Amino acid sequence: MPRAPERSPFDETGARYNARMRIMLLLLCGLWTLGAASPVLAKTYEAPAANLDVLEARLVEILNEHNVPGMSFSVIAPTGARATGLGLAARQGNQPATAQTCFRQGSISKSFVALAALKLAEEGRLDLNAPVHTLLPDSGIENRWRDEHPVRVIHLLDHTAGFDDIHVNEYANGTPDISLSDGLAFNTNSRKVRWRPGHHFSYSNAGPSLAALVVEQAAGIEFESYVKQTFFDPLGMETAGYRLDEAMAERIATGHEGDGNTAADYEHILMRPAGALNASANDMLHFLQFMLNRGSFREMEILSEASMRTMETPQSTLSAREGVRAGYGLGNFTTAFKGHLFHGHSGGITGFVAHYGYLPEHQAAFAFSLNAPSGAAFQAIHDEVCRFLTRDAESRYPPEHLLASDLGSEIAGVYSQFTVRQEIGRFLMPLLGYVRVVSRDGRLYARPLLGGEEAAIYAVTDSLFRGAEDPIASMSLHRDEGTPLIQAASGPLAGTFRKSSMGRVVFFWVAAILSLALLVSSIAFALGWVPLLAVGRMRQAKHLSVRLWPLLAALSFVVWALAVFTALGNAVDKLGHLTAHSGLMFVSSLTLALAAVLGAVQVIRSRTWDISRKVWVHSALVSAAALVVAGYMTYYGLIGLRTWVY
C-alpha cells in the first residue's frame, strides 16, 4: 500500500484495501522478507513556491514525475484564492481536468457527517452524548460495557467507539442505490466493541456511517438530502454529490490504478456518508472558505464558531482528557507541519486520494484530489502546498521540559500496540507491533523494533509530550494498573501502546520461526520418502500415518498461504466473495487444524510402536509445531474464516 503520511490518516476502500491486505496477509502467511523496495523520491525544491503560478507549475511537475493523470486543486492564500483542474480528468481521450470536474473525495465525506450532527445539536434536535442504543435499538452494536460505558453519538464521530473497521465483504458488495440502513445491516460484525468506549482512537468507517443514520433519524430525511439542503446549497457547492447519476457521470474524473495508466471502475460503497463524496475544485474552494470563516459563508452563518471549535478538538480519548489538542476531533483532525497546526481530513477510494487542510489563524487553506492513488505524489503535493502556505509564518514550539532520569528510565522499554484498526490484523501484534522507547539526556526516542527511523520525543510536562514538528502536545503518558501506556496522535507510537517486555518479543519470534521451520522440514523430508513410496520401495516402512498427518498439516498451511498470496493483487474481489481463493483459504485452514490434532493423537498412540525413533521424534516435533500454528490461528479467528461472510 502506498503509505499515507502520518499526519493524514485516511480511509482505504477498494484498491487501497487490496494494498493494505497485501502487506498484512504476506506476513500472515509467514512469507518473511529481508528487505524493502527503495522508495520513489519526489523532486524537492530549495525554497517554497514564490506565488500561486509557481506552485501550480510545481504540482504539474509532481504529477508528471509520478505518472498521475490529474488533480483538482483549491487554495486560499494571503495573496489570493484559486480553484483549478490540473492535468487530465481521464487518460482515455485526453480529457483535461477543470475547476468544474468532480473528483472523488473518499473519507473527506466524514467531515460532512460531523457537520450535519453538529448542526442538529445546535438546533436541539440531537444530543451528541446520547447512547446510540437508545436512538437506534437495531444498530448491531455489541458492547459488553454498555451499562457503564455505552457507545455515544460523539464516539461514532471521533472513532472512539471501539469498533473494528468494516470487513472485506463490505468493501466488495457496494451497490449504487442501497439505503444507508440496508448498507449498515449488511454486516454488523465490525460493531463488536473491543474496549471501553470513549478511551482510545481507532479509525473505523462503521462509526461515522452509523452517525449518519442517527442524522437521518433526527432530520427526518435521507442523509444525502439533509447535507445538500443544509450545506451544499448554501455553500454553492453546485456539483457536489454522493451518487453517480447522469449529471455526475458527465463531470466525474476517471480514477486510475496505481500505475496511473489503467482506468479504475467507479466504486459504489455500502456506506456512502463515510466515503462516497464527489466534488469539484470550485465546490471545495467554497467549503474551505466556510471552514476559514468559522462556520459562515458570504456573511451567512451556517454553523456557530463554537461548533467549529468542537469539531476541531479531540473529545473522548485519554489524551483529550489530559488536554491534548492534536489528533482526531469530529470528522476533522489536527496535525502539525513543521511547527504549524493544520485542521482537515484525508480520503482514499478506488482510483483516488484526496486531502484538505486549513490554518484558521493565517486564513490559509487547500484541498486536492488525485485520480491515481500514488502515495509518493500525495506526500509531495501535500508538503509542497503546506510549505507554500506557511512560508511567511513563524514556527513556535513550547519550551522543552527535561525528564528526570528515574522517570525516563520508567518510561523507556518495549511497547506493544493495543489498538488495531482492523481486528483481522491483530495476530500480527505479538510478532510485529512493537516500538522501542529509549531515554537519553532527559529526552525520549522511539523507533519500530524491526527497523525504521528514530523519532525524538520532547517532554512538555512529565505526562505530556510532542514530536519534533509539533507545536503542542501530541501524546500523553498514562498508567494502566501501574503499567505505562502511551497514547499518541502521530509518529511511531500513533494509537495506544502498552509497555511490554523484550522477553515476550523473543518468545513469540522464536516460537514462530521454529514452528514454520518444522513445517517446512516435513515437506522437505517428504520429498525424499514420498517418491520412494510411489515406486514401491518403502514396503518395509511401518505406520506411515505417523508421517502423513503432520505432512498434511504442513501442506494445508502452504496451500492456505498460497491462496492468500495469490489473492493479494485483488483482495476485495477474491476474498470478499465466495471464490476459489476464499473457499480454499476456508477449507485448507480447517484441514490444517484437523490434521494437526489427528497428527498429535497419532504421535501419542505410536509411542510404543515399531517405528524408527528418528521418524517418530521428527513427526512429534512437526505435530507440535502444527498445533502451535493452528492454535495461534484459532485464537485470532483465522481457522474456518469465511471472508465472504464475516
Report on this model:
The protein has 646 residues and is of the alpha+beta class. It has three domains: 375 residues, Beta-lactamase (3-Layer(aba) Sandwich), CATH 3.40.710.10; 96 residues, Lipocalin, CATH 2.40.128; 133 residues. 40% of the residues lie in helices and 17% in strands. It contains 22 helices and 20 strands. The strands form four sheets. Strands 3-2-1-12-11-10-9-8 form an eight-stranded antiparallel β-sheet, sandwiched between helices. The chain has an eight-stranded antiparallel barrel with strand order 13-14-15-16-17-18-19-20. A two-stranded antiparallel ribbon has the order 4-5. Strand 16 and strand 17 form a beta hairpin. The radius of gyration is 27 Å and the shape is globular. The N terminus is likely disordered.
Question: Which key features would you list for this structure?
Answer:
8-stranded antiparallel beta sheet; 20 strands; 22 helices; 3 domains; alpha+beta; Lipocalin; Beta-lactamase; 8-stranded antiparallel β-barrel; about 650 residues
CATH superfamily of the largest domain: DD-peptidase/beta-lactamase superfamily
Helicity, in percent?
A: 25-40%
Helix tally?
Answer: 22
Mean pLDDT: 91
Global shape? globular
What class do helices, strands and sheet pairing give?
alpha+beta
Name of the top-level CATH class of the largest domain: Alpha Beta
- Unreliable residue stretches: 1-40
| Second-tier CATH architecture of the largest domain | 3-Layer(aba) Sandwich
The multimeric state of the shown protein is single chain
What percent strand?
A: 15-25%
| Strand line-up of the largest beta sheet | 3-2-1-12-11-10-9-8
* Count of domains: 3
Determine the N-to-C terminus distance.
Answer: 23 Å
As for the CATH topology of the largest domain, it is: Beta-lactamase
Major sheet description: 8 strands, antiparallel
Number of strands: 20
Q: What's the gyration radius in Å?
A: 27 Å
